[in-house]
UniProtKB/TrEMBL annotation:
Domain of life, source organism: Bacteria
Keywords: Bacteriocin immunity
Organism the protein comes from: Companilactobacillus nantensis DSM 16982
Record GO biological process: bacteriocin immunity
The protein's name: Bacteriocin immunity protein
InterPro entries, A to Z: LciA_Immunity-like, Ta0600-like_sf
Amino acid sequence: MNKQVKNKVLEAFIDEFLIQLKEVARDPAMKKRPDLQVIVDQDIKILEQTDNLDKLAPKLFQQISTRYIEEPKDFPKSLIELYYWARVETNKYDAVEWSDVQAGTNWLEK
């Protein structure tokens, strides 16, 4: 897979991640948990501005799991589903990114 194709795959994944976050933000169940709404809204802004999923995803995963452990009551199902979907998908994202490093295309283009 060449660099352009990998970039398109990575961009498509970031776009899908953003779509999923926005769907969670619109979930009526989020109104019961304004603390979670703030987290999701902040992450949407960060992802729209920076496209830096490498830093955002681990932080989001930690925040979701910590909040769930601390207060599982009224935890939106959509956020749980996002968590599990994103955990699987970010592994694929990391694999595509890592294969780019292994192929040496990152170093050759700098």
